Amino acid sequence: MPTESTFFLAGLFIIAAAAGWAFARFNRGADAAAPISADYIRGLNLVLNRKTDEALELFVRMAEVDDETLETHFALGHLFRRRGEVDRAIRVHQNLLARPNLSEDQRDQALFALGEDYLSAGLFDRAENLFGDLSDSPSHGKSAQQQLLSIYEREQDWKLALEVSRKLDSPLDDSDRIPHYLCELAEKARRDGDLPRAREYLKPISKGRRGSNRGILIRAAIAIEEEDFDTAVRLYHRVLETDGYLIAEILHSLVESHRRRNSLPELQQFLSKLMVADPSLEADIAVAAILSNMLDEPVLYAAVEAFILHNDTLSSLVDLEHLTSLDAEPRRGVVVRIAGGLRRLAMGSARYRCIQCGYSTRRFIWNCPGCKAWETVRPVNRIQFEGLLFADDSTTAKVT
Ligand SMILES: [Zn+2]
Question: Rounded to the nearest whole angstrom, what is the distance from the C-alpha of residue 143 to the centroid of ligand 1?
């Protein structure tokens, strides 16, 4: 249903259009088309009396009368769409398109607006067809391609998305979407068992650019499938050296790869070195170990124990003096129990958040559904545990 503000804003449009008409008429003299004035006043009355459909009919007839009313109709169509009255918006734009004397630019503008109406109505096939027809338009081609891209991303049609974005982005553009489209295609090829094709997709992704670490992770997964654990370990280490936040996604495969090549001491050494270079990573590694339930490795257990002992929230809930006075074995028992409680809490809630729009999610994703940006989702480890602990008194009691 139309809202109060719809009527009010529609009224404003008509007043603005009537004022523009009156101004033009004053400048042109008395021979200007007089009947439009009466139409605008009738239209205003209809809108103010909430007879939107009748007002719409009137506007549609006006479009047949005067080119000057075109922009008003575009504004009105836009207004209807913004207010969720998509049927009315479609009606306005279809009627504009039925006009025989539209210029090419005006026709493309009306087609583009109609495409946006279809998008709002969830009619993606129709929108795709319209934007496809407009993709070579001199005035609306780029915008139509942008809209096509968002449709292909929504439909996860990565081949078409790649095709359109290659047209849109210049080779010097630092766009991060193309590497991610390639990674999506590579990941699918890998899942389908076509490893050579997966490698082909990954080849053009340049080192050091966004998306490149995602490509490296796919190559590591391929290496594991081929039981080439040396390569897998080398690739995982390379990713962690630049993007430590990915540890939670990698830890399980990393530890398993080291186990398979009997190189766990090397893993200890590598993680210790990482934590010395960036002490904040200790918490990330601890949380990753808690979530992956991997406290067997001494370096991981040590990180978890330090995390529990040095976390302000957790330490206020645990009798630290008692815990530190315990011998190694009983202390380990308490730490493992607390870690188990934290894992159960964390599994049931959002552990990642988009740094751009704040969208929260339980699992790691490369493309944010909230703002459509790539590679903006990060773990919220430390904040998350505190939020969890204060969120529910019964679960807090369990941890203590
Ligand atoms: Zn976002």
Answer: 22
